[in-house]
Specification:
two-stranded antiparallel ribbon, 10 helices, 2 strands, Tetracycline Repressor, domain 2, 227 residues, mainly alpha
């Protein structure tokens, strides 16, 4: 005679448990994208059970981004804007190099992570000190963020792929192009990544410093070009 095993009630699922499991999946090193079905399998529940606690996929991603990117709080010193921008840039690079998967949660399906928008606000506050304002400030924020984050993303991609330029690749070019690329790559491949990024930051600072805001003082004031 077999004795029936009395099953207890399953542990109550919580929003916090769901978000923490989603974070663990993103950080597990597999490189697999986060999905509701993958998350449900990890929790050993049905996908519909998740929606009893999380409104939709967007709410899940925002919660995960807040948990991960919310930990990123760069210490911006009381200093001139170039020093503040250098600090923000280098701390951002260090954080994303340590957690490259975070690039996957900056934005998705026409959404931007609220936690990343908070960093956009920090960057805007720094660049506003240059004297650039209005639409020009918005353009400066976009260009600065794209340039610095693009540099970081390319560095991460290069590390993952073992970015190399083979002799066969160069030899496949025309003789003239091969000579140019060979000389350039011989120099670039020797450069330290830290030096490359610092050069990028310095060039951004130089470009921003060259932008002189134009404030009208009268209807007959000269233009910014002095005409």
């Amino acid at each position: 005679m077999t004795t029936a095993v009395k099953r207890g009630r399953p542990a109550r699922l919580s929003r916090e448990q769901i978000v923490n499991t989603a974070v663990d999946l993103l950080l597990d090193g597999s490189g697999k994208p986060l999905s509701i079905h993958r998350l449900a399998r990890a929790l050993d529940i049905t996908p519909m059970a998740i929606y009893r606690h999380i409104e939709n996929k967007d709410a899940l991603m925002q919660a995960v981004a807040l948990e991960l990117l919310g930990r990123f709080q760069p210490h911006i010193p009381e200093a001139d804007w170039p020093v503040q921008l250098q600090t923000w840039a280098h701390e951002t690079r260090a954080y994303f190099l340590k957690h490259p998967v975070f690039f996957s949660i900056l934005g998705w399906q026409e959404h931007i992570a609220i936690a990343w928008l908070q960093q956009v606000a920090v960057l805007t506050g720094i660049l506003a000190k240059t004297g650039i304002d209005d639409g020009a400030l918005a353009d400066a924020v976009q260009w600065t963020a794209n340039t610095l984050m693009g540099s970081i993303y390319f560095e991460i991609s290069s590390r993952r792929s073992g970015f190399k330029v083979s002799r066969d690749d160069i030899d496949a070019l025309s003789e003239a192009d091969a000579g140019i690329v060979r000389d350039i790559m011989a120099h670039l491949l020797k450069k330290d990544p830290d030096v490359v990024f610092e050069d990028c930051v310095e060039r951004v600072i130089e470009s921003l410093g060259a932008q002189k805001p134009c404030h009208a003082e009268s209807l007959e004031e000269k233009s910014c070009t002095g005409a």
